[in-house]
Specification:
The chain is an alpha/beta fold and 273 residues long. It contains eight helices and twelve strands.
Length: 273
């Protein structure tokens, strides 16, 4: 996956000290520091993003936003942050899910459009998913790229869709996470996170968490790199990747797979990803 770090420029913070983390005036956690070191940021970016170039948004963040030092230690939670949208803990989400059925996670960072809906509901019919499985729609609602729709607005769109498409086999929860656009490594990160939330399967789409160079516009990852990397590591993670269907909209039959549309000579309408 991707490292979660406590970064700082402070020279005063040292191992052996304990600090209080706050969200405004609300105490969130204490950290008892045991380690402090200067990270090798180019190596970190190369291992996480496959590139150390600041043309990648993740590498740019590490280079320009993170502090000089990384610190580690024991974290003790005190209170959950108060957010603009509800975010249940992994334990709370697991308690709402069936113990004896497959749970398929669907991750997105944008408002869900109809093609997404068709994709995650049809995933329950995949041969990899057992009978009676449910889908957990689990969007990331934290800050993403500058041109993305804000998380609190995305949350409102999800709530409307949840009511309009009420289905006992579809569950909705929200994740306070910011995408790193790390392609294959981000796919692994999301599989681990969703396993903690009680999921057994994870839908991986074409070019998941993909990113383009801010200079040349070239893709950093291949369209199926994330799917392939997830399949290679699924046994170790204990989560089964479910490749997303390549759906197209046709004048004659509505949504069908691209292969079916081609075989039957149906007239397709192009959609954004």
């Amino acid at each position: 996956g991707l490292p979660v770090v406590f970064d700082t420029d402070s020279e005063e913070l040292q191992p052996g000290m304990t600090v209080l983390l706050k969200d405004g005036d609300r105490p969130i956690a204490t950290v008892e520091f045991t380690d402090k070191y200067t990270p090798d940021k180019p190596l970190e970016c190369l291992k996480c993003y496959g590139t150390a170039s600041i043309e990648h948004p993740g590498a740019l963040m590490v280079a320009t936003e993170r502090g000089r030092y990384y610190m580690g230690g024991k974290v003790t939670g005190l209170n959950a942050p108060i957010r603009d949208f509800p975010c249940k803990s992994p334990k709370e989400v697991r308690e709402t899910l069936p113990d004896d059925k497959d749970v398929v996670a669907f991750q997105c960072r944008n408002p869900v459009h109809r093609a997404h809906y068709e994709l995650f509901t049809r995933a329950l019919d995949d041969p990899l998913v057992g009978e009676g499985g449910v889908v957990l729609v689990h969007p990331t609602c934290g800050p993403t790229q500058a041109d993305d729709i804000p998380g609190d607005v995305r949350y409102k769109t999800y709530e409307v869709l949840k009511e309009e498409t009420h289905n006992d086999r579809t569950r909705w929860e929200y994740l306070p996470y910011s995408m790193h656009m790390a392609g294959p490594r981000e796919a692994i990160q999301h599989m681990m996170i969703r396993k903690n939330f009680g999921c057994t399967h994870f839908i991986i789409g074409r070019d998941m968490a993909g990113s383009k160079s801010s200079v040349t516009g070239e893709d950093f990852y291949g369209a199926y790199d994330a799917q392939d990397f997830a399949k290679e590591n699924s046994d170790r993670l204990g989560v089964t990747p479910v490749p997303s269907l390549n759906l197209v909209y046709t004048e004659e039959e509505g949504y069908v797979t691209a292969d079916e549309a081609e075989e039957r000579g149906l007239h397709t309408k192009k959609l954004s990803g």
